[in-house]
Amino acid sequence: MTPPAMAAEGNDGPSSQPARWAEGPLGIVAGSGAFPSAVAEAVRAQGRDVVLLLIRGFADPALERYEHRWFRLGSLGSVSAHARARGIRQVVMVGGLTRPRVRDLGLDWTMVRLLPRIARLFRGGDNHLLSGVLQLVAEQGFHLSGAHEVAPSLLLPEGVLGTHGPTAQAQRDIVLGLDLIRTLGPFDVGQGVIVVDGLVAAVEAAEGTDQMLARYGELRRTGRLRFPAGRGVLVKAPKPGQDRRIDLPSLGPATVARAAEAGLAGIAFEAGGAIVPDATALVAEADRTGLFVVGVRELAP
């Protein structure tokens, strides 16, 4: 059962006491990729301690250099008890995480009691699942924040990064891509599209951005799509209405390299709507490959 004193510090709106839940170390629930480390370093630079809660099977073992505890996705009860004992009141969720099967979760007793509810969370898209996970974390007595709130220095700024900028046609493609993401938002479809010369060439679904880029590149190589290299834009933005405390898009040099390999001209992300752990490396890769990277204003309502 959630301790009453802790439950009062969840995401309850105006009655919450930010000064209390912001005290003590920040708990970082870490999935795959470089972003958990980037967030940890940004928070430590502010003078705050961090404790990494590493998801087994996803988090990089190199994160053990921080104070940490490994856990399986289904052990919410035991990892929550550890976090409370460590004085953690505020938690962020960072890094990649593929949708698991219920039978692979490794449920502890807390999660076994919630099994019917967990099963219902899996009957929907990612937003439905992640929003449900957010609620479960809050019910354990933690204030769940977004990486953009605890490490704002990592957010993609507005404007062109690097030496290359979008052409007039690429700008029109970006507008179309953002319109499409806004339109598809209610259907809980992915956060990315590829638009080439006014044609929607690919839409991100369950496969994720990397596989969408690979699929588009393969369609070009086999002649199914006859676009020359150096045309088209990868457009990514959070879905309208998405809770930005979870599943915020991220952008690194690897994405730039994959977009270049697929034959695109550039990448457009929503400014303030994507995490960039190493802007210097990102710009260097964009300049090396000749791609533009641009942060654009948020989606229109």
Overview of the structural elements:
Helices cover 37% and strands 17% of the residues. With 301 residues, the protein is an alpha/beta fold. Strands 6-11-10-9-7-8 form a six-stranded mixed beta sheet, sandwiched between helices. Strands 3-2-1-4-5 form a five-stranded parallel beta sheet, with helices on both faces. β9, α11 (253-262) and β10 (266-270) form a beta-alpha-beta unit. α10 (209-221) runs parallel beside α11 and α11 packs parallel to α12. The longest helix has 17 residues, at 168-184. It is globular. The chain starts with a helix and ends in a 5-residue tail after the last strand.
Which short descriptors sum up this protein?
disordered N terminus; 37% helix; 301 residues; alpha/beta; globular; six-stranded mixed sheet; five-stranded parallel sheet
Number of helices: 12
Termini separation (Å)?
40 Å
- Low confidence ranges: 1-18
Query: Total number of β-strand segments?
Result: 11
